[in-house]
Amino acid sequence: MNSKRPVNLDLGKFHFPLPAITSILHRISGIIIFIGVAFMLYGLDLSLSGEAGFNRVSDLLDSFLAKLITWGILSALLYHLVAGIKHLLMDMGIGEELESGRIAAKATIVVSVILIVLAGVWVW
Questions:
Q1: Fewest CB atoms within 10 Å of the CB: 38, 60, 78, 115?
Q2: Residue 10: pLDDT band by 50, 70, 90 thresholds?
Q3: What does each C-alpha distance from 11 to 8, 18, 20, 43 come to in angstroms?
């Protein structure tokens, strides 16, 4: 049997359309939010344990790494929110066609980038 199927797929040759990329990023942002909630709940628990815990969390949140993690979680949350609204509109029958799906994906990226930059300004 002579099969012409490729033995090893080169994933670098695949080019996904923008709506597929935004959908994959929506899933990834959900995972980041899920993991980030653990850090945020730990910080909340520590800050509510007393004055010393609150001061410790306050000092920790002044560091560059903590601000970067906070901005990352906020970025994932904002992107997930915008992409979720896009998916809700698609569930209502808006933007299901090929061209309107591309436009909605571009709008999702643009709105998300604007909100993420604003969140970065707010965090720093």
A1: 38
A2: confident
A3: 9, 16, 15, 39
Query: In angstroms, rounded to a whole number, what is the distance separating the alpha carbons of residues 76 and 6?
Result: 36
How many angstroms separate the CA atoms of 7 and 81, rounded? 40
Q: Which residues of 69-106 are buried (b: 16+ CB within 10 A; e: fewer)?
A: bbbebbbbbbbbebbeebeeeeeeeebeeeeebeebbe
User: How many CB atoms are closer than 10 A to CB 22?
Assistant: 24
Instruction: Tell me the pTM.
Output: 0.85
* CA distance to 9, 61, 77, per residue, from 123 (Å): 42, 10, 14
d(CA 55, CA 107): 41
Query: What confidence tens digit (pLDDT) does each residue in 38-94 have?
Result: 999 999 999 999 999 999 999 999 999 999 999 999 999 999 999 999 999 999 999
Q: How far apart are the first and last CA of the chain?
A: 63
- The total number of residues shown for the chain amounts to 124
Q: 29, exposed or middle or buried, with CB in 10 Å at 0-12, 13-18, 19+?
A: buried
